């Protein structure tokens, strides 16, 4: 390139270089390493290489761009304009050629490694770098004078035209390839899995002529209670559809240890649970493909995150060793598999990537949360709590990251609660209790109105009031504590003690009436003392895990808290703190990350470099095993109180004043000491 050659400046990258007159913009971009997409290799077929030339004077770049800086609009561009339309000012990079100095903007949708914007302000955007891409190639025809196989010539075309070396092919490709090559007149589009540290690049599928896709991938969060999946475009990163189902393994046990126990007690139990979860997974994939209106065979990559027990059962490994100390995993490394090995009915050559586990009870779901929330990049000390049947907890900053798992059980999801239910229309999800009258008002899923609104009855006529979901039970118990209906140790007071006849004798303890729909054939919704106990046990396990990590870090406070998990997105920070689920912290510093494990899976699906990143990060995370930590039990006993029998929660005290009541005094002569004795036994 001579100094007299025109200067081409690309934005937003800022890359620049001089190129001879007549050089296509796509060629200039490739030589400079500019991120400009193309599937057809510059043949004017795919339109992925759209660019926007800028004209006028650019003092910043030291150039003036003339109106004729590029070749004129040509027939190929006009054909695309007629068929699909180009945004005003756009050109095709493979058709527009350099005539004089020019500034070229590469729009986000034309970048291979485009950024997928995450809506939360503190979240990092996802950089696109999918595992599988489409390549259009022209293959040399067979020649008797130069005998070689069709596959070898296809591989040679990929190497020469796209610089992809060492490509292999699966058997199913060989079985279908020859008629496709001939139908396409030796012009074909190839889906290539670009390989990784374990496997070389592989041809996954071949289409005759030009095929523009898109290809799809799945990001799957395999939880103890639910399986959630996001179907994503591997081209744009867009979430095309999301869906979820109940984990079919629930019939073998609601919590993880009961499933481990089932496999121990029943010959073939582990295999039975493996078959159940794989069948459920395929049913979910059918459902999500139908919702999106796509062919399931176009799903070529899948990423899975799960806790260690689900990890083993999904892989067909007996979780026996996870049921006893030292809780040894079969493997903690990331796994690169073929989806067919897991009996998954998507594309026959589809790949499956399972994120690494952190420790025996801290799984790939916690690794995914670490990838999504990046505590290792946080300047302030952040506590990340993934709330679920089995809570994953991370505490860290740029100095170090600690992790543990805490068995909260399914109470937070509405299970084991007398009026509890899954989050569905009609379930109570928000609660306020008048501190004077002790009467509740609430909102149900499916309506924005409070129950004391005159229009409420009409609005919920179709769903009714059916029960209390997880976020509702948290707010309910916290509001009962604020209103003086429940005391610190967790006892519901009598009508005389609380001044409300909503409290009624229910066996040996009292219950609280929330809603009585029995006159209209609806349910009578109450909160019993056993419900309070279930929530106390769950929240104490959660808090104790967090407090243990704080001990190990050598701190008594955290600067920021992130509530993760699909359920975590619906938790009120104030009510969570009143319960004592989370440590004392300014409420404005408590945020929700939604399903962070699912987001981590999506990042790993869309950006293969992030897989290497999380594999390295996991090796640096310090794992704490709560089961063998003596202070865990001490914290658990203290945290059984609402909010805590020892921790003062001074910041919470500036927001809400909790009544100093104890309903155990004088009950059978136990007094306060009796309440403490009972808490110790329960812990």
Describe what you observe in this structure:
The protein is of the alpha/beta class and 683 residues long. Helices cover 29% and strands 22% of the residues. Helix 5 crosses helix 6 (269-292).
In short:
With 683 residues, the chain is an alpha/beta fold.
Strand content: 15-25%
Residue-averaged pLDDT: 90
Radius of gyration: 30 Å
Proportion of residues in helical segments = 25-40%
Structural class: alpha/beta
Largest sheet: 6 strands, mixed
What are the salient characteristics of this protein?
683 residues; 6-stranded mixed beta sheet; 18 helices; elongated
Topology diagram in text:
Layout: E1 7-11, E2 16-18, H1 25-32, E3 50-54, E4 56-58, E5 63-65, H2 75-83, E6 91-92, E7 102-105, E8 115-116, E9 126-127, E10 132-138, H3 150-162, E11 168-169, H4 171-183, E12 187-193, E13 202-208, E14 216-222, E15 226-233, E16 239-246, H5 256-265, H6 269-292, E17 299-306, H7 308-315, E18 335-338, E19 351-354, H8 364-373, E20 382-386, E21 391-396, E22 401-406, E23 427-433, E24 440-444, H9 456-459, E25 467-468, H10 470-482, H11 495-498, E26 503-506, E27 509-516, E28 524-527, H12 529-553, E29 560-564, H13 573-579, E30 590-594, H14 596-606, H15 608-620, E31 622-623, H16 630-639, H17 650-653, H18 671-682
Parallel strand pairs: 1-7, 11-13, 14-17, 17-19, 20-29, 22-31, 23-25, 29-30
Antiparallel strand pairs: 1-2, 3-6, 3-7, 4-5, 8-9, 10-12, 12-13, 14-15, 15-16, 18-19, 20-21, 21-22, 23-24, 26-27, 27-28
Helix pairs in contact: 5-6, 8-14, 8-15, 10-13, 12-16, 14-15
């Amino acid at each position: 390139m001579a100094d007299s050659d025109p200067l081409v400046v690309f934005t937003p990258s800022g890359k620049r270089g001089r190129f001879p007159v007549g050089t296509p913009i796509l060629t200039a971009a490739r030589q400079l390493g500019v991120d400009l997409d193309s599937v057809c290799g510059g043949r004017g077929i795919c339109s992925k290489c759209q660019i926007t030339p800028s004209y006028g004077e650019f003092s910043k770049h030291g150039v003036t761009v003339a109106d004729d800086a590029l070749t004129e609009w040509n027939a190929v561009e006009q054909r695309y304009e007629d068929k699909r339309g180009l945004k005003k000012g756009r050109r095709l990079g493979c058709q527009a050629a350099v005539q004089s100095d020019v500034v070229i903007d590469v729009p986000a949708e034309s970048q291979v490694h485009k950024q997928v914007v995450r809506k939360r302000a503190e979240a990092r955007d996802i950089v696109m770098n999918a595992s599988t891409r489409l390549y259009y190639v022209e293959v040399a025809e067979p020649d008797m004078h130069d005998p070689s196989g069709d596959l070898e010539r296809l591989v040679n075309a990929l190497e020469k035209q796209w610089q992809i070396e060492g490509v292999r092919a699966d058997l199913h490709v060989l079985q279908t390839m020859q008629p496709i090559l001939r139908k396409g007149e030796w012009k074909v589009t190839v889906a290539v899995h670009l390989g990784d540290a374990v496997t070389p690049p592989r041809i996954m599928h071949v289409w005759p002529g030009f095929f523009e896709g898109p290809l799809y991938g799945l990001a799957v969060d395999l939880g103890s209670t639910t399986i959630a999946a996001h179907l994503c475009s591997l081209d744009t990163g867009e979430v095309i559809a999301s869906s979820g189902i109940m984990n079919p393994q629930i019939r073998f046990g609601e919590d993880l240890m009961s499933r481990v126990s089932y496999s121990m007690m029943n010959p073939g139990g582990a295999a039975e649970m493996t078959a159940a979860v794989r069948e459920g997974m395929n049913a979910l994939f059918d459902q999500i493909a139908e919702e999106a209106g796509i062919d399931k065979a176009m799903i070529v990559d899948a990423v899975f995150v799960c806790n260690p027990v689900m990890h083993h059962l999904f892989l067909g490994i007996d979780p026996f060793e996870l049921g006893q100390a030292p809780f040894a995993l079969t493997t903690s490394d990331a796994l690169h598999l073929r989806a067919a090995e897991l009996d998954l009915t998507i594309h026959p050559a589809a790949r499956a990537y399972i994120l690494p586990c952190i420790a025996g009870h801290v799984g790939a779901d916690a690794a995914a949360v670490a990838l999504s929330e990046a505590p290792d990049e946080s300047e302030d000390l952040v506590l990340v709590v993934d709330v679920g049947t089995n809570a994953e907890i991370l505490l860290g900053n740029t100095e170090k990251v600690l992790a543990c798992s805490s068995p909260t059980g399914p109470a937070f999801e509405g299970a084991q609660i007398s009026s509890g239910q899954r989050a569905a229309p009609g379930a109570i999800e928000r609660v306020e209790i008048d501190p004077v009258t002790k009467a509740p008002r609430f909102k149900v899923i499916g309506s924005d109105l409070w129950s004391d609104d005159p229009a409420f009855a009409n609005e919920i006529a179709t769903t009714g009031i059916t029960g209390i979901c997880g976020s509702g039970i948290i707010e309910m118990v916290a509001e009962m504590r604020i209103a003086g209906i429940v005391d610190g140790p967790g006892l519901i007071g009598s009508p005389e003690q609380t001044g409300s006849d909503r409290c009624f004798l229910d066996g040996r303890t009292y219950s609280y009436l929330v809603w009585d729909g029995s006159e209209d054939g609806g349910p009578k919704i109450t909160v019993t003392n056993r419900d309070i106990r279930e929530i106390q046990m769950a929240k104490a396990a959660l808090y104790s895990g967090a407090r243990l990590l704080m001990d190990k870090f050598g701190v008594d406070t955290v600067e920021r808290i992130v509530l993760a998990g699909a359920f975590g997105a619906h938790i009120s920070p104030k009510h969570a703190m009143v319960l004592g689920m989370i440590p004392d912290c300014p409420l404005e510093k408590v945020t929700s990350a939604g399903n962070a494990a699912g987001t981590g899976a999506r990042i790993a699906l869309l950006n293969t470099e992030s897989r290497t990143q999380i594999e390295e990060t996991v090796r640096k995370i310090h794992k704490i095993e709560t089961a063998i930590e003596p202070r865990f039990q001490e914290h658990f006993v203290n945290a059984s109180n609402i909010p805590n029998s020892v921790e003062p929660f001074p910041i919470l005290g500036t927001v809400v004043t909790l009544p100093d009541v104890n309903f155990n005094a004088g009950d059978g002569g136990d007094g306060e000491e009796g309440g403490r004795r009972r808490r110790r036994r329960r812990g």
